[in-house]
Amino acid sequence: MRLRHIAGAEQTVADCVYVVGDPQDRKGCWNRVFGNDHPIRMEIGMGKGKFLMEMARQDPLINYVGVELYSSVLLKAIQKQEEEKLSNVRFLCVDALRLGEIFAGGETERIYLNFSDPWPKDRHAKRRLTSPRFLAVYEGILVPDGKLEFKTDNRPLFEYSLDVLAGEGWEIEMQTFDLHRSPYAAGNILTEYEEKFSSEGKQICKLVASRPKKE
Ligand SMILES: C[S@@+](CC[C@H](N)C(=O)[O-])C[C@H]1O[C@@H](n2cnc3c(N)ncnc32)[C@H](O)[C@@H]1O
User: Fold this and answer.
1) CATH numbers and ranges of domains, the chain
2) Nearest atom of ligand 1 to the alpha carbon of 97
3) pLDDT tens digits, residue range 33-77?
């Protein structure tokens, strides 16, 4: 994703009541952040937040955490949330690699990865959000039957992710190389990137995987 520097973005993020500051202090007590015991789902690399906010509108009894690395990207989501004030939405401006410091084991029910950056060069493979070191973080914070949902237009990244997930012991529960023309299309919520790529005629791949079962 091409990034623009936006003056004041970091301060706006720091000042926003919906962005959780010092998030490592919330580890094990996220129910206090939301003021209830509802399950937590998160989108990692949420971009401008269209998908996350629509999920939150549809499921008020689920808490949604949007994770985004860049404050300049998070700004748009913050603007929308400050207008709408959805009580079940919070944001984190952190690298997903840090999520194990921020959530205790079993504190998250489901993780969404939507149109994650593909990092096509082999030497950058470890930056992919479906690489083994990220999967280990997700495994550490998900409930025992927790799920990872992944959508992308990038077929090589999708095939790489299927291989890595299987290799790391995740069970692939569903997969399709053409989501919008599959039985799984019903109820699908489009992300910003999904809208753009599908309007260009690109096929969208989707998988759902469940966390490795420990003996
Ligand atoms: C291509 S955009 C997709 C945005 C949105 N999910 C969508 O589908 O429209 C990928 C996003 O992931 C974020 N991202 C990349 N690596 C990340 C990481 N390690 N931790 C958190 N966010 C990350 C990027 O900053 C970018 O906003």
Assistant:
1) 36-210 (3.40.50.150)
2) 19
3) 999 999 999 999 999 999 999 999 999 999 999 999 999 999 999
